[in-house]
Every structure is written in structure tokens, then in C-alpha cells.
Amino acid sequence: GEPLERVFHLVDGAGAEPVAAAVAGMLAEGEAASIRDAHLERSDGSRVPVDASLAPIRDGGGKVLGVVAAFRDVSQERELAARLKYQAVHDALTGLVNRREFEDRVRAALAEVAVDARQFTVLYIDLDQFKVVNDTCGHPAGDQLICQVAELMASSLRAGDTLARLGGDEFGVLLADCPLASALAVAEKLRARIGAMRFAWRDRTFVIGASIGAVTLDATMRSGADVLAAADSACYLAKEGGRNRVKVYQPDDQQLRTRSGEMEWVAKLAAALEENRFELYAQEIRPVGDGPSEPRFEVLVRLVNESEDLIAPMAFIPAAERYGLMPRIDRWVIEHAIAELALRRRDGMPLPVLVVNLSGASIVDPGLPALVGERLQAAGVPADRLCFELTETATVTHLPAAARLMRELKHLGCSLGLDDFGSGMSSFGYLRNLPVDFIKIDGHFVTNMHNDPIDRAMVAAIHSVGHVMGLRTIAEWVEHEATLAELAAIGVDFAQGYAIARPQPLAAVLKKLGQGTADRPPIRLVLSKR
Predict the structure, then answer these.
(1) 122-154 pLDDT tens trace
(2) How far apart are CA 95 and CA 165, in angstroms?
(3) What region does 37 belong to: left with phi over 0, alpha with psi -120 to 50, or beta?
């Protein structure tokens, strides 16, 4: 005899009471009904999540006599669903919204910019010293630092702003109704507060900094991903500019255009490596005077694009170096150079010396000597047919690693050279501890030495000291017969440049060697008394 709503008191998520209305409709129409996202309110006032189903009770003639209600406790299911929903949009470590949810909110903000002309600014924040903490103290310390920085930033923002962890040590902030000037004030406050914090872990204390990129949302941006890419680019330039600073995204910024182009090259290079779209070229290095006459070539790499056009290395090498792709490219060059020598050896032809350049990133690659040894052994190619060149700057920058790499390559039987020698004006002293066979004189001194007495004196000095140390010298960028004459007068051992030979496909060069058309005598010049 009790009213239904008192015995079976259901409320939905909005606080309404749908049961009585559903029963009334069922009695009138005889249609079954279900109720989801409801709570059963018990006599003590507590609530239990339930799903309910209502079905009519009919007599023999089909007339609705009443309603039967079946309901089920779904507490565990709803708790799990809520947890999964939360985890889908929040970072597990900090509890902040994650990158996916942040992009969704930025996308929603872009829609409001287009419709209501509201002003939003996004900040992209990258911690400057996180890697030091993570590498020296371990991941637990890094996680603790991330949490402390998250709490510090959250306390510095308004309730309507969104703070997200985008991944690693990167954070995003969406500032609502905030023009650029106000956003920059917020960014500077965050930067200053992070810079003032001291992270202590056990017996060590670290000073933390933050580089911040800022971008104001406008109609030219189509997606949350576009906004984050722009803010990330600005943040990157803040790091490049010295770290611990704020950089505003400007679409016409030349630095940003350069980085955007480099990022495009990253995808192109990755695809080219997967699809084997590189080609080896070779440029002859010829003895000057009566030096050793065995054929010697520097190996150069060209990229073959999707249209089968050849792309010169200076178009893609800077991007490859900046984004860590040079070790893969260096390994590709080494493997294919050895493969070309193996083909020539199979045909019973004498093998030239191929000079392969190594990037600074490959200098610190501990697995490189093993790779070289394995490839040489598998191909049956003598190790003395390979010479590796390292730039002077990269060698000095990574001196312990360079010395170790050189010793291991020398142990295999390869010869070694220092490229661009003199570019850094480094002391000759460190050469005493490096097993170097050649020094290649920086082309900036060589190319105009026939007109510039200072350049000529530099070439002569480098050559003289190199010979005293038992090293042979190579002059690069030799483009004039007059330059060759000066090099011969000085006594430089080898010359390389357009006055000697232009780069050609390596396979074609090796084929010509087999036909004898590429074997040229040493350079001999008749010098005037002048």
C-alpha cells in the first residue's frame, strides 16, 4: 500500500526521479522500459548505483495489470568505468590531464576563438635539468621532481586554466580569456618559480630551470596538434637560445621556418633509410708530386627523393645531425661502401682505399667498431682498404670517446684521418695521443691560398708540423691549377677538389678503375722561378 517512489526511490545522475513517470507511461502504453545511470536511495539516505528494468504484468486478455521492476547493483562496474574514463584523460604520475585531453581542450578553445572571439594562449614548458636528475639519481628522483613541479605550477594558475603533462618533462598550459601580454606575465611567473625551486634528493641538490614556448590561438590553426607543434617549436628555440627563457611563436620567424624544414627532413630521412634510397658518390684524392699512387676516394652520400632526384648532403645533414639520425646514415654508408669493395674483390680487381666520414654522433657509438669488423670479415675485404675521417671539432669535443674509437678502428687495421684540420685552431698537442695517419687541411685556408699569403702560410704551417709528427697531409677544396702549384711547392701530400675530379657515383668509379680509365699518374707541375 506504499507509493512506488517511497518503496523504490530511484534518482538519476541529474537528481530527477524517473521511476514514477516511467511506470505511469507503461501502465498506459504497455511498453517495457529500462533505466540506466540511476541510484537507489536507501532508507538511511545512502545511494547505490543500479540499473533497472521495468516490464508490464498482463492478464489473459493482454490488459496491463501492473509492473514488475528488476534492478541490479552496478557499483563495481561504474567504479571501474569511472576509473577507466579518468585514466584515459589523466596522467598516471601527476594526476594532471594528459596530452590527448589537452589537445581536445585546445581544439574546443579553437572553436570558441572562431565563434566567440575569445582569447586563449597555450604555453609549452620543458624542464631544463630533468635529464641530469634522471640520469644521476634514477627514475624515482625524476618522478618526484615531475610531481613537485606539477604541484608548483598548479598553485600558480587560475581555476579555469588547464595544466597538462604532455609526456616526459614537458607540460602544457591552456590559459582561457588571456591575451598574449597577460600570458607572457604568467609564463615569466612560472619560469621564475621553477627557477627558484631547489630539488633535493638524498645528499644532492639540483637547480631546475624551464624553457617556455607561447602561442596565441587564432583562426589559422586548424587543430590542437597544430597549436602544440607551434608552441613546441617556440619552446625549442627558447632552449636553443640559452634555456630558462620564454619564446613567443611567430609564423614568419626565420628560425622557426628553419626548424620546420628540418622536422620535415626527419620524416623524409627515416623513410629513405627504410626504403634504401641513398646513393654513394666518390671524389678522388690524388697524390701531389711523387707520393703514393694507389687509388684513393672519399665516399660521399646523396639522398634519392621520391621523384628520383639526387639531393646534396648539405640539404639534409644538418637535420640528421640535430635529430640523431647521423649514426644510422653513417652505418648505411659503411655497409654499402664495404659491399661495393666486396663486389670488386669478387671480380679479382685491386681495391682502392675508400675514405668514409664519421659524424660526431658516431664517435660516441660504442657498437661502431664491432659493426665495421663484422662487415669487413663477412665481405672478405682487408681493413686497410677503409680510412675513417673525423672532423677536428668533433674529435676535440668528444676527445676520450674519439681516442677510444680510433684505437679500436686502428686495431682492426683501418687508417684514420682528421678532417677540416685548422678550423678550430686547436693545439697539435692532442695529436700525440691519437693514432692518426692523415690530417686534411681545412678548405677555407686552401681554396684561396694562391691569392692570400696568410692562407698560404697557414697551409704551410699545418703541413710542416704534420710532417714533423709523421702525418701525411691532404688539401681539400682545390679548385685552381694555381692552388695546385702552391701545394706542390709546399710539399702537401694529397689534393682533393674540382681541379682534381668531381664527385661521381661510386659504382661507376670502381668500374672505371677495373677498365684502367680512372688510374691517373700523380700530379707533377713545372714551377717557375717566381
Answers:
(1) 999 999 888 888 878 888 999 999 999 999 999
(2) 9
(3) left
